[in-house]
Fold Formate dehydrogenase, alpha subunit.
Amino acid sequence: LIAMGQAEHSVVTTCAYCGVGCSFRAEMKGEEVVRMVPNKDGHANHGHSCVKGRFAIGYATHSDRITKPMIRARITDPWREVSWDEAIAYAASEFKRIQAKYGRDAIGGITSSRCTNEETYLVQKLVRAGFGNNNVDTCARVCHSPTGYGLKQTLGESAGTQNFDSVMQADVIMVIGANPTDGHPVFGSQMKRRLREGARLIVADPRRIDLVRTPHVKAEHHLKLRPGTNVALINALAHVIVTEGLVQEDFVRERCDMESFDKWRNFVADARHSPESTESITGVPAATMRAAARLYATGGNAAIYYGLGVTEHSQGSTMVMGIANLAMATGNVGREGVGVNPLRGQNNVQGSCDMGSFPHEFPGYRHVSDQSTRDLLQQAWGVNLLDEPGLRIPNMFEAALDGEFMGLYIEGEDIAQSDPNTQHVTAALTAMECIVVQDLFLNESAKFAHVFLPGSSFMEKDGTFTNAERRISRVRKVMKPKSGYADWEITQLLANAMGYPMNYAHPGEIMDEIARLTPTFQNVSYRRIDELGSIQWPCNDEHPLGTPTMHVDAFVRGKGRFMVTEYVPTQEKVNARFPLILTTGRILSQYNVGAQTRRTDNVHWHAEDRLEIHAADAEARGIVDGDWVGVASRAGETVLRSRITDRVQPGVVYTTFHFPESGANVITTDNSDWATNCPEYKVTAVEVTRVSQP
Ligand code: SF4
C-alpha cells in the first residue's frame, strides 16, 4: 500500500482517524504519496503514531472509491453515472419538491466527524440558511453528545479540560469506560509512560482492558462494574469522599456554586449511596470502591479520562455530570495533571460539535433561541433563522416513518451501519423520498440513497480538524480530489443549486467566517495555525495563543455547578430469555464501522469481529472457542464467532463493531440517553447459542 521510493517533498497534515489527531508528514514524489511519517513536531503526538494512521493512505487510494456522481429514481434501480451538474441539479430539485409537498421541515442534513471543521460548518449553514430549518445533526449524537450536555451544565463548556501532555503531571489516573491503548493508541502510550513513572491507576470498566494488567503497568483498583451501573458507582465514590471528609472545601467554597454543592452533598451522603448499599447493584466490592475513592481524592493530582463506556448509556449525561461533580469536589480541575477528559473517538468529533452541527446549537455552542447570536448570524448569512431546535437523528427516523420527513443529505456518515436498531433505521431510510449520500465508498447507507456524490478523503482537501484536547490542526491537500471536487465544494454546489449562494474560494475563507462569528475561535486563522503549529480553543483576545488548560481561575460558567445524579436503572433488563449483557468496544487496528480501515493493510491484524464470552457462560451453552454463535436480543439477531476469555466477567459478553457482517447494531436497541438521545450501545440483553457456520 505504501509506494516505495525517494521522497522529493513532504506535506504536513493530520490523521483522519481517532481523537488524538496525530500530525503526519506525507512524503511525496511528484503527486504520489511515498510514505506517511509521524511528525516529530506534532503537538498531539510528538513523532508517534499507530498502525491506523500509518496505513491510512490505503483507503484514500483504494479501488473501491467511487469517483463519478450517480443517481437513480428508486433504490431498486441500478445506479446511473451522471455529470456533476446533473447530480447536483437532481438533488436540489428533489429537495425543493419535497419541501413544496411536505413543508419546509421535511428535509435535513447529517454531518460527520470525518468532515473538516469547515465542511461541517458549511453543512449546518446549508441546512439553516438554505433549507430554512434546524434539522441538522452529527454522528456525535451517537457518541459524545452527553459530554457536550454534561460538561456544559457543570463546568460551562462542552469540551475536555486539559491537553494530552497534562497527563505527565498526573499522580492518579482514573480511566472510566475507555480503552486508550486500543481506541487512542498514541495517547494510550503516553499514559502508560506516566504510569511506568509511578502514577497510580484506577480503571472502571466491565471488561479487563489492557491497561488493567500489561507489562510494567498494573491498575491498583479495577472497578469491574456491571454494564449500566456507572451512575451508582460514581455516587458511591462521591459518598466516600463526602462522608470521609475528603472534599477540598476551600476549592469548592471559592470556585463553586454553594447552593448546588450543598444539595449534591446531602444527596450523595445518604446511606443508600454508600459502597455497601450499592455493591449489589454495581457488582464491585464495597472495599474496592472505598479504596478507589480515597486514592482519587487524596493521591495528589488526579485526572479522569473517559470514553464511550460513559456516554453510550441511558444515563450517559448523568454520568458525565457525576464525573464533573467528583473532580470539582476534590479540587481536581483548573491546573495541569488533573481534569475531566473525554477521549473523543473520532478525529473531529469535538470539531463537529464546535461547528454547530447539533439541531439546538449554532457554532460555539450557542442555543438557537439566543437572540443576540441569531441577530449576528442572520446579518452575516442574510436569512432569517428559526429559534426552535430542529430534529435529532432519531427524531428524523421517527418523522420519516410518520411520513413527515422525506429528504436527507448525509455527508461522511454511515447511519445505516452505525446507528442502533438497524431494522428501525433501514425502515426509516426506505420511507424517505430522496437521500443524498456524499461519501468515499458505496457504504451501507448508500443502499437507500437516490443520489451518490463522491466525496474526498482527508488527503484531497484543505481544512482543519479539532482533536479531543480542543486542538485545531491543519489538514492539507496532498493530492487532487479523485472526483474533481473537495467535500466543501460539493456542499457549496448544492447550496447554490438550492438557491442559497455560497462562494468561498478556499476553506481558509470559511475559517475566517467562523472566527468572525464565533467568540471562542475569534483569533483562529490558517496563518495563525501555521505560525503556532496548532491552536487549542478558546483562542481570542483573552487567550491569544489558545488555551491548553481550561477553567484555571474560574469556570467558564462562572461558578462550577454540582448536579444531583440519581441512579435510574436501565430499561434493558436481563431475564430468562435474554440472560447476558452485551457491551461493545474498539480494537487497535480497526476504526469505527471499518469503512476505511477494512480497506487498508490493517485487515491483516483484525479481519473479523468476535464475541468474547466467559468460559463459564460458554460451557453452560456448549460453546468452544471459535464456534459460530447466534446472538439474539429484543431487537434482532446476528451471528459471530466466539472467543472464550476471562477479559469479560460471567454474565457479560462483548464484541467490536468494525465489520458490517457482524451486525452489532442489528441487536442493539432503541434505548437512549435521557438528555441527548445518545444510544445505549453499551447495554443490550442477549442470549447466545451455538449455531452452525452461516
Ligand atoms: Fe494517531 Fe489516532 Fe491516527 Fe493512530 S488513529 S495515528 S493514534 S490520530
Summary: DSSP finds 24 helices and 28 strands in the chain. The mean pLDDT is 92. The longest strand covers residues 637-644. The two ends are 32 Å apart (CA to CA).
